[in-house]
Amino acid sequence: MSAEPVRVLVTGAAGQIAYSLLFGIAKGDVFGKDQPITLILLDITPMLPVLGGVVMELQDCALPLLREVIPTDKEEVAFKDLDAAILVGSMPRREGMERKDLLKANVAIFKSQGAALEKYAKKTVKVLVVGNPANTNCLIAAKSAPSIPKENFSCLTRLDHNRARSQVAMRCGVPATQVKNVIIWGNHSSTQYPDVHHCKVNMAGSDLACFDAVKDDDWLKGAFISTVQQRGAAVIAARKLSSAMSAAKAICDHMRDIWSGTPEGEFVSMGVYSSSNSYGVAEDLIYSFPVHIKDKQWKIVDGLAINEFSRGKMDATAAELVEERDTAVTFLSA
């Protein structure tokens, strides 16, 4: 066993996504089957009694890799010497709330957590932002931690990626593992663009282009896209709660790929810094791209052909992100 436990923070740790997530991390699904873990759980003070119950349950799982669980409401405890930070907690949108007000509340949270990363965490920390609006929250955290490399920050679009993969798989009647290289471009919002122009489906032992496997261009350019874009809302409408199980699985996938890398010839989607990308996306955004990961470093997959249909959708989601960023940055200096 690696002697040193990795120090992993989960924020919003008393919430429902964390409740689905913590077991997966603690049993070794993310950082490796022989990697001991110290879990640090941060939430707001009123949630500490609930967090105490979560700690009891983690203890009661009697997991071999879980060395220590530290519940806290203090940033200086939570962010100390971190190897990984999974920032799930954010201000949820309340009924009748303006998007601007939501952004303002979240800028305050992620500015503070970025500053805490800067002050207390290891400079090698890998930061995954899940709390919405995830792309912009991630950008604010990164800007608030200037001495941590921008490449160490990413936001979650893996849930959208998994949703797209699964939709194609169900349509083709194959397991989701036989669908690879779907792409989510842009914002983790309803403007995201699920792109299957570079996707391959393994049918009867050979890889087919997605359009050839599905044989329904209208569906792929219409209902497929809107289904993936609106899936979160559909789950809330049905469950009266947001998608926690699938979000937790996507978080595990995202972090595991950062830690262990992506398979040769496959790429995954994550929101990363747009600087010097080859797809004409504006600088200084956290935008979801297809990436390869090796040695804990991601690299945007270059040279994918982009047709006019894709271009329009990629630009639309970029425009939303630019507007979000510009609004958020005004709050940052306040």
Automatic annotation (TrEMBL):
<comment type="function">
    <text>Catalyzes the reduction of aromatic alpha-keto acids in the presence of NADH. Plays essential roles in the malate-aspartate shuttle and the tricarboxylic acid cycle, important in mitochondrial NADH supply for oxidative phosphorylation. Catalyzes the reduction of 2-oxoglutarate to 2-hydroxyglutarate, leading to elevated reactive oxygen species (ROS).</text>
</comment>
<dbReference type="InterPro" id="IPR036291">
    <property type="entry name" value="NAD(P)-bd_dom_sf"/>
</dbReference>
<protein>
    <recommendedName>
        <fullName>Malate dehydrogenase</fullName>
        <ecNumber>1.1.1.37</ecNumber>
    </recommendedName>
</protein>
<keyword id="KW-0520">NAD</keyword>
<dbReference type="InterPro" id="IPR015955">
    <property type="entry name" value="Lactate_DH/Glyco_Ohase_4_C"/>
</dbReference>
<dbReference type="Pfam" id="PF00056">
    <property type="entry name" value="Ldh_1_N"/>
</dbReference>
<dbReference type="InterPro" id="IPR022383">
    <property type="entry name" value="Lactate/malate_DH_C"/>
</dbReference>
<feature type="domain" description="Lactate/malate dehydrogenase N-terminal">
    <location>
        <begin position="6"/>
        <end position="153"/>
    </location>
</feature>
<keyword id="KW-0816">Tricarboxylic acid cycle</keyword>
<dbReference type="InterPro" id="IPR011274">
    <property type="entry name" value="Malate_DH_NAD-dep_euk"/>
</dbReference>
<dbReference type="GO" id="GO:0006099">
    <property type="term" value="P:tricarboxylic acid cycle"/>
</dbReference>
<feature type="binding site">
    <location>
        <position position="163"/>
    </location>
    <ligand>
        <name>substrate</name>
    </ligand>
</feature>
<feature type="active site" description="Proton acceptor">
    <location>
        <position position="188"/>
    </location>
</feature>
<dbReference type="GO" id="GO:0030060">
    <property type="term" value="F:L-malate dehydrogenase (NAD+) activity"/>
</dbReference>
<dbReference type="Pfam" id="PF02866">
    <property type="entry name" value="Ldh_1_C"/>
</dbReference>
<feature type="domain" description="Lactate/malate dehydrogenase C-terminal">
    <location>
        <begin position="157"/>
        <end position="331"/>
    </location>
</feature>
<feature type="binding site">
    <location>
        <position position="132"/>
    </location>
    <ligand>
        <name>substrate</name>
    </ligand>
</feature>
<comment type="similarity">
    <text>Belongs to the LDH/MDH superfamily. MDH type 2 family.</text>
</comment>
<dbReference type="GO" id="GO:0006108">
    <property type="term" value="P:malate metabolic process"/>
</dbReference>
<dbReference type="InterPro" id="IPR001236">
    <property type="entry name" value="Lactate/malate_DH_N"/>
</dbReference>
<feature type="binding site">
    <location>
        <begin position="130"/>
        <end position="132"/>
    </location>
    <ligand>
        <name>NAD(+)</name>
    </ligand>
</feature>
<keyword id="KW-0560">Oxidoreductase</keyword>
<feature type="binding site">
    <location>
        <position position="99"/>
    </location>
    <ligand>
        <name>substrate</name>
    </ligand>
</feature>
<dbReference type="InterPro" id="IPR001557">
    <property type="entry name" value="L-lactate/malate_DH"/>
</dbReference>
<dbReference type="InterPro" id="IPR010945">
    <property type="entry name" value="Malate_DH_type2"/>
</dbReference>
<feature type="binding site">
    <location>
        <position position="43"/>
    </location>
    <ligand>
        <name>NAD(+)</name>
    </ligand>
</feature>
<feature type="binding site">
    <location>
        <position position="106"/>
    </location>
    <ligand>
        <name>NAD(+)</name>
    </ligand>
</feature>
<dbReference type="InterPro" id="IPR001252">
    <property type="entry name" value="Malate_DH_AS"/>
</dbReference>
<feature type="binding site">
    <location>
        <position position="93"/>
    </location>
    <ligand>
        <name>substrate</name>
    </ligand>
</feature>
